[in-house]
Design a protein that fits this description.
The protein is of the alpha+beta class. The protein is built from 3 helices and 7 strands; from the N terminus they run H-E-E-E-E-E-E-E-H-H. It has helices spanning 23-38, 121-134, 145-160, and strands at 43-45, 55-58, 66-76, 80-85, 95-100, 102-108, 114-120. It has a 5-stranded antiparallel beta sheet with strand order 1-2-3-6-7. It binds nickel (II) ion. Residues 87-89, 129, 133 line the site of nickel (II) ion.
Length: 161
């Protein structure tokens, strides 16, 4: 699996629900986890590998890989926190993003089992970041306009170099 970057339009499209969690999906999930490890990231969503399905995987240090298929965000905390984010599809760019401190999510795992999860801290942040990918939203969209412009200028400069 190849991770696509910012200029790829797929990152701006909404992903489609998974209709059947079958062996093909299980294989896809395995490959996504491999791609996540290869990229040394903490989260990876379908559109980032050109797969327009509502799937993302998360693997943070000290935890097992977690699989989210057809996730829904049930609720988020009113309290927000600002924390630095990056994205495998926007290599080398890091910026502070404001997001809810906690999230409640419902999804299916690769075995077709539905689960509910309440997360806060880094896990909540990654869930919200990856969920955004399924909606065609990138973390740079959540920056203030001046900050986003600075980031975009930096990316452009790098592409020219
Ligand atoms: Ni990302």
């Amino acid at each position: 699996m190849e991770i696509v970057t910012l200029e790829n339009e797929l990152l701006r499209q909404k992903a489609e629900p998974v209709k059947d969690i079958n062996s093909d999906i299980q294989k896809t999930v395995e490959e996504m986890i491999e791609a996540l490890h290869e990229g040394k990231g903490v989260g990876l969503a379908g559109p980032q590998v050109g797969l327009m399905k509502r799937i993302f995987v998360i693997h943070i240090e000290g935890d097992v890989p977690r699989v989210f298929i057809n996730p829904s965000i049930i609720g988020t905390s009113q309290e927000t926190v600002k924390f630095e984010e990056g994205c495998l599809s926007i290599p080398g760019i890091w910026a502070d993003v404001v997001r809810p401190r906690a999230v409640q999510v419902q999804a299916w795992n690769e075995k077709g089992r539905r689960f509910n999860m309440e997360a806060d801290g880094i896990l909540a942040r990654i869930i919200l970041h990856e969920y955004d990918h399924l909606e065609g939203v990138l973390f740079i969209d959540r920056l203030s306009v001046p900050k986003r412009n600075r980031v975009l200028a930096k990316i452009e400069k790098r592409q020219k170099a």
